Amino acid sequence: MKKKFAVLLSMTMAMQVIFPQIGESRQRENLYSVLQDQSEVKTYIRDVRDSSGSSEEFVTLIKKDLESDLEARKSIHFVIVNDEKDADIIISCDIAERMWIEVDPIDMVHSAAAGVYDAMIKENYSRLEAVFVVERGPRKVIFKRIGGKRIMWDQSVQATVTKKIMPEKESIPLVSERLVEVFMRKCFSKKAKI
User: Fold this and answer.
1) pLDDT digits (tens, 9 = 90+) for 123-160
2) Which residue from 20, 37, 81, 109 puts its CA 20 to 30 A from 3's CA?
């Protein structure tokens, strides 16, 4: 039995060496390596959609937060453009879920003491989930390394904010800003694994 297992394991390892997965066919976890060497990345941000029907405020806030976070980025020089035809990349966002509750839910904890502490602390809780899609724009100048894929990055992103006193109205800009921070880290961060 051990001999069969060893043969199977060595065959599997040999197959991975002989037929490695091509980088373009894998779901790309991060776009930093594709964009880092560009002098500028012309970026168009589509109007944010709200499939959750949560609040019109989110639609404008998320787009504003995206613009300011992209322009403030130092490691990749993003330039916001007003026309999709001029874009290297196009970013879309669709809000999937929005939640605000007066008492935050008990988180997954790793010890009984942490669970008791979490249950005792009463804080307001806000969560926002959205699907972000980054696709190549019509310019196609900078994407020689990624092949013919139109969708470069596509993931659901979730952000939560808890605060001792945070009325629902006050939570809207906080969780919007947090959502964009999480998106930027997941999609464009140097430290994220590829």
Assistant:
1) 788 889 999 999 998 876 666 555 567 899 999 999 98
2) 20
Give dist(CA 50, CA 40) in Å, integer.
Answer: 30
Residue 41: pLDDT band (50, 70, 90) is very high
**62 class by beta-carbon count within 10 Å (0-12 exposed, 13-18 middle, 19+ buried):** buried
Task: Select from 135, 169, 163, 129 the least CA-distant residue to 149.
Answer: 135
H or E segment at 114?
helix 112-120
Cα 147 from chain centroid? 22
Q: Measure the CA–CA gap between 150 and 122, rounded to whole angstroms.
A: 45
Q: What is the CA radius of gyration of the chain?
A: 21
Given a contact cutoff of 8 angstroms between Cβ atoms, the answer to whether 154 and 183 are in contact is no
CATH code of the region 2-188:
3.40.50
Burial of 156 from C-beta contacts in 10 A (0-12 / 13-18 / 19+)? exposed
